[in-house]
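Please fill in the sequence for the structure shown.

STRUCTURE ENCODING:
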């Protein structure tokens, strides 16, 4: 009797912050190595990269011919060379990037920025807001309604263009019976559209690697210090414009920790070095930005760390989370805009 080949079970615990990346913030540099996990209220516990930074079915898709965890294989192709690079940088302080290193870093940064829970919510909000603008115009403007039905007719889609049909549609929309929705597949595809838009926004920027000497960089559930506005060109004229979203950067410098002893700064200054030593204040600034963007957790190789406080002092972990709770160290990261709407995140 022939033995059937074992069928691999789909990956269910899917990381939005890769475990191989989080491993760079542990003492042993492995996925099962312990590090310290802080909740935003300052509660601390020990965890591992394997056991944090994931959601069940976070990347799961339902497309014919593809495994439910197909995106995991795509992400691994991006994560593996990048995390190998981060390990090399961590072990070789002062090293700059080769051209292939730059490609690996930029791809990782853009995809990582796009796949985070906050970013997916931003893209989904853009789709929903754009669809809502389109629907509202459909039910309120007779001219626009006829324009849309005429376009539908050209594509062999039958839609009654009489006023009674528009009225029924209006009642359905205003009654909440018809509403825009972003499904898992569309949201998953949106991550890659967002990544491409972020890559376009970073075009022309330079980099500097900051190597910490004596202090450690922390990481979080939102490790990319990226603030941006997200928009789509006129959704009334082109409803598919959300497939090519536009990202506009709100800061001239963007920070991301790559390991406990190295971070990258993207900037537009040609005269800055490609690598430099990071003193205590520089590490504290990067940590403050990383923590300010966090919404779920902060992780650290050490139980304590330095962080720039709102009053410009350098504080420790306890003082940092007191500031988070008392002074609102956290700040708005993103503005989502469509033709009519603007939403802060």
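FILLED IN BY: designer on duty
SEQUENCE:
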């Amino acid at each position: 009797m022939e033995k059937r080949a074992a069928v691999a079970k789909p990956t269910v615990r899917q990381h939005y912050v890769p475990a191989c990346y989080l491993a760079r913030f542990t003492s042993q540099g492995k996925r099962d190595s312990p590090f310290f996990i802080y909740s935003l209220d300052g509660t601390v516990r020990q965890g591992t990269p394997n056991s944090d930074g994931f959601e069940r079915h976070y990347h799961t898709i339902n497309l014919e011919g593809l495994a439910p965890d197909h995106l995991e294989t795509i992400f691994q192709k991006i994560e593996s060379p990048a995390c190998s690079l981060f390990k090399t940088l961590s072990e070789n302080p002062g090293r700059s990037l080769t051209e292939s290193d730059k490609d690996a870093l930029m791809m990782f940064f853009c995809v990582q920025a796009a796949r985070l829970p906050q970013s997916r919510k931003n893209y989904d909000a853009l789709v929903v807001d754009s669809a809502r603008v389109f629907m509202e115009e459909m039910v309120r403007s007779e001219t626009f309604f006829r324009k849309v039905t005429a376009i539908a007719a050209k594509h062999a889609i039958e839609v009654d263009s009489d006023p009674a049909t528009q009225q029924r549609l209006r009642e359905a929309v205003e009654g909440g019976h018809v509403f825009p929705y972003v499904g898992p597949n569309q949201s998953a595809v949106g991550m890659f559209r967002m990544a491409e838009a972020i890559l376009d926004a970073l075009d022309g920027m330079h980099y500097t690697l900051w190597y910490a000497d004596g202090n450690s960089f922390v990481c979080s559930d939102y490790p990319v210090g990226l603030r941006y506005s997200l928009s789509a060109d006129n959704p009334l004229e082109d409803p598919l414009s959300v497939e090519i979203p536009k990202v506009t950067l709100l800061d001239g410098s963007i920070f991301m920790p790559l390991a406990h002893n190295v971070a990258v700064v993207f900037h537009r200054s040609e005269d800055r070095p490609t690598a430099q030593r990071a003193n205590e204040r520089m590490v504290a600034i990067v940590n403050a930005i990383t923590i300010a963007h966090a919404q779920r957790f902060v992780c650290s190789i050490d139980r304590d760390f330095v962080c720039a406080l709102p009053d410009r002092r350098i504080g420790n972990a306890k003082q940092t989370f007191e500031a988070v709770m008392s002074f609102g160290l956290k700040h708005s990261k993103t503005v989502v805009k469509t033709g009519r709407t603007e939403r802060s995140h």
